[in-house]
Design brief:
By secondary structure, the chain is an all-alpha fold. It has 2 domains: about 170 residues, Growth Hormone, Chain: A (Up-down Bundle); about 170 residues, MFS general substrate transporter like domains (Growth Hormone, Chain: A, Up-down Bundle), CATH 1.20.1250. It has 15 helices and no strands. α3 packs parallel to α6 and α7 crosses α13. The longest helix is centred in the middle third of the chain and has 30 residues. The radius of gyration is 20 Å and the shape is globular.
Length: about 375
Amino acid sequence: MFASLPGAAKALLWVRILNQVGAYALAFLAVFAGPAVAVAALVIFGVAALVSRWAGAFILGWLPPGIVVSLGLGATGLSLIALSASGTPLQVLISVALVGLAFEIYEPASQELVAQVTEGDQRQEMYGLLGSSLVAAGAIAGLIAAALLPLGVRWLVVVDAVTCLAAAAVALLFLPREDRERPVAGKNGKRWRPPVLLLRFTLANTAFAVGYLAVVMFMPLVLLQRGAPAWVPGIALAGAAVLAPLALWGARRSLTGRPHGLVLAGGAIVLGLLSLAMARAENVALTICVYMAWTAVNGVLLGRWQALVADAAPEPERPRWFAFQGSSRGVAQPAVPGVVALVGGVGGAVGPAAFLTAGVAFLVVPLVLKARRV
């Protein structure tokens, strides 16, 4: 699969992996900010990151995707350096805002670059390969973070900044610096409005993101609550990071040519049923077995949402479609803890509540998508 990819796609893959290997500092953002401003820091970061994704789509109207990727990574690296040097709570909050405003600039550009240099089944394979590689790199990042954490969270931020700047340099050297000639949206002077199809995709992806995050965010806690030793959650997460790309590779031939909407709808139903099974499980071994099955199914779906948007969007509006649809995770992330707490207040323990939330959210996806043949 990798050998058949265009050179620009291979370069982008290495850029994102290099960046992801160091992308662990923000997982410790609340620890770095301190208890006094942790909540404010997380809220500020979340809002700023959502803004930065839209800023990245806007900048794409002026600069080629390769340059925007480099710009976004470089800005993130510089803002992380500012964060590592901050001392007072006010300095921390200002630096967190700067990090957030740079954090997602490269995302629409990455997706647009893949859409430009690939097509058909190769496009979905590239999106899937990108997603699975980032998951695997994230597992490596966790091990690096475990080694650096005894030195202090500030060093995590510094190393994260260095990898961002290194990835920006690689992007500047190896990604295309010229944009493929294409029509530009918005030249008729009309205000852009997301079409109904895009709204449906985004709503469905938001439900999917709620389900995904409800499982990922609460799985370690659930395993510990069900009696797992302290080392088990880390091993389970590392195993999941390895399993996801293997599942994608194993299923790619059987799913080649299948409409993305149908694959996502079917996969979401299976993920929903597995999430409900985890809610009913009571012992650690059964929970982990079902979670690994859940991970394999989720791995098969990697890249499908991006490919769905890339294939359906009019070419001039594609960056805006990517930005709008990509906002789904930014909306889901702050919403999930509150929804799980609400469900837990009605239905009992947090663990089953998280999996129940995930199950319902996943089962909503095919209803919103209406299993469109796209």
